[in-house]
Amino acid sequence: MSRIRSTTGSGPGVHRRSVLAATAAVAVAGGAGYALRPDEAAATAAAAPDRAAALASSRQAPAAPLAPYTRGTTLAALATPGSGAGSGYRRLADGPGWQRVVRDGLATAKSGRESRRTALAAFVQLTDLHLIDTQHPLRLEYLRSTDVHAWRPQEALTVQGAIALVERINALRGAPVTGAPLHFAMTTGDNTDNNARTELEWFLTVMSGGRVTPNSGDPRHYEGVQNSGLTQYWQPDAAVRDADKQRGFPHLDGFLAAATREVRSPGLNLPWYSTVGNHDAMPLGCYASHGDSYLTELAVGGRKLMELSAAEAARLQTALKQADDPRGAQYHDFLKAHARAMRPVTPDEKRAPFTPAEYLKAHLDAAYLGPGPHGHGYSTANVEAGTQYYSFRIADDVLGISLDTTDPGGHYEGSIGAAQLAWLNRTLTDHADSYAVVFSHHTSKTMDNTRPDPAHPADRRHDGDDVVALLGRHRNVLAWVNGHIHRNAVTPHTGSDGHSFWEISTASHVDHPQLARVIELVDNKDGTLSLFTTLVESSAPARTDFTDLSQTGLAALYRELSLNAPGARTDLAGDAADRNTELLLKKG
User: What's the CA gap between 310 and 322, in Å, rounded?
Assistant: First the structure.
């Protein structure tokens, strides 16, 4: 158990019930996770023998956390574009951090609360890791001929970048404001990019610890768009003057060999939970095409489409955005029509899509237990019921609820069924004496896809407004934490009876600025509560050395490439009020 220190004077106290949560306490509903048992720990050691060595080399939290602190957070420093930003290839360097902003629109901030407050819970949110099998045949890189956003030069380094984020979380001293132990980490979906078994294995190993080889197909060399010779993609190893090199991207001999070699993850050193996103649930994040034999054949087979005319790419992209092909029938026909243009690649059965049941069973596999809990929130009850939502106990008086906002009918935007909405209402009612934090992948504004679930056509789908209205009726709800939009955003919501809560959306870890978020819940002992949000970057250096193709060097390059991705948005960090904040709420 983590050692917890109470502080006096201007420092915060630690709630006595936090001790229970620090050990990933008990679950409270069918489908919830369970605390790590000795026999599970033994199974983990046997299944992942490399984890202990990797974890020992990871920077870990001291036994006695300091509070408050800023080191290792974006309060202290931030990777910032150096001189010459705005033209050509930009270099990253260490820059000043972001200050904390107090948001008192839902409750008045009262003086002296710093010395009165008591910690209730603290956790880390990761979201939109998008671990990518860049050699997978069912990818849409060719859309770059009409849209530069469709393919990112950093995509081959998602595993190295995610490991560096795990290392950062392991190095945190606890909660930055209160010094409370970090009770758990929650990843809010799009853990994988293309519903591929390769990606799922990599994600679970990165989170739980062990060796990962981010390669598929021919183990001897890379087979994908980055050694295709096509000038619309960055060709790092080749002398070809591709479009990205014309923008200043470097020529890096040995890059692809380095990007696909084995790396080691220490795994998180605290319990972690998982929430499903649309890219986890559906091929390409949008097609409800499980069971399509042709698409599965292509996924595991030896042909890959790498180029497409701008006009054809524009038509396909329009169909994706308008979601007029949720089952992937038109996409199926499109690929058949371009079969002769496909290039040969090495077949690989591990690239097959996984079903929702397989996603659940993979989480329940003892090989991926790490520090627990078993199933990372999911349980055999979820497998039997065919559901991917659950609740779990954060502390004696704080409940966590993970929703499944993916729509089985297809499309990248979300919704939830009537059965799940009723379960959410019942869970909040049954635990009205506990504060509640709700997790999902989609935001309230991106839950506008209410097409029927093919397996449950009578189960009406509900949008984000319905979820906001329900949460607003429960006075125990403090926050709704999500991702999907790849942007930091903090939004206040007030229900019809005046009850308020905060919606906290966090940027992705695939697009710059590649952030995760620490969230702390505190009782100010003055009739108000505060939610502190503190953003953190990965452990990789801001500045990359193009000669360093080590695991750490590639993680640093991942950060800089994401900054320079053509068409990369500059608003994903959000405004100051969306970053490091203190969010006030009225108590009760």
Answer: 18
Q: Is the peptide bond before 181 cis (omega within 30 degrees of 0)?
A: no
DSSP code per residue over 524-577: -SSSEEEEEEEEE--SS-SS--TT--SHHHHHHHHHHHHHHSTT--S-TT--GG
Residue 80: is it exposed, middle or buried by C-beta count within 10 angstroms (0-12/13-18/19+)? middle
Q: For residue 13, what are the β-bridge partners?
A: 118
What 3-state DSSP class applies to 25?
coil
The whole-angstrom separation of Cα 83 and Cα 324 is 45
544, HSE (Cβ side, Cα atoms, 13 Å): 29
Give me the amino acid identity at 396: D
The number of angstroms, rounded, from the C-alpha of 171 to the middle of its chain's C-alpha atoms is 19
Cα–Cα dist 582/46, whole Å: 43
Cis amide linkage into residue 373, ω under 30° from 0: yes
Contact residues for 392 (Cβ-Cβ < 8 A; gap 6+): 27, 28, 29, 32, 33, 273, 373, 377, 399, 400, 402
Structure tokens at 269: 């050193």
In tens digits, what is the pLDDT along the chain, a chain of 588 residues?
A: 222 222 223 344 444 334 344 443 334 443 333 233 333 334 434 444 444 444 444 434 444 446 789 999 999 999 999 865 456 899 999 999 999 999 999 999 999 999 999 999 999 999 999 999 999 999 999 999 999 999 999 999 999 999 999 999 999 989 999 999 999 999 999 999 999 999 999 999 999 999 999 999 999 999 999 999 999 999 999 999 999 999 999 999 999 999 999 999 999 999 999 999 999 999 999 888 777 888 899 999 999 999 999 999 999 999 888 888 888 888 999 999 999 999 999 999 999 999 999 999 999 999 999 999 999 999 999 999 999 999 999 999 999 999 999 999 999 999 999 999 999 999 999 999 999 999 999 999 999 998 888 888 889 999 999 999 999 999 999 999 999 999 999 999 998 888 999 999 999 999 999 999 999 999 999 999 999 999 999 999 998 889 999 999 999 999 999 999 998 898 999 999 999 999 999 997
- In this structure, are residues 539 and 168 in contact, taking their beta carbons and an 8 Å threshold? yes
The model's pTM: 0.90
CA–CA separation, 410 vs 284, rounded Å? Answer: 10
Distance separating alpha carbons of residues 527 and 168, to the nearest angstrom = 34
Task: Locate 362 and state its tokens.
Answer: 């993979």
Residue 43 neighbours by CB under 8 Å, 6+ apart: 366, 369
Tell me, rounded to whole angstroms, the distance of Cα 400 from its chain centroid. Answer: 17
Q: What is the dihedral of CA 5, 11, 17, 20, to 10 degrees?
A: -40
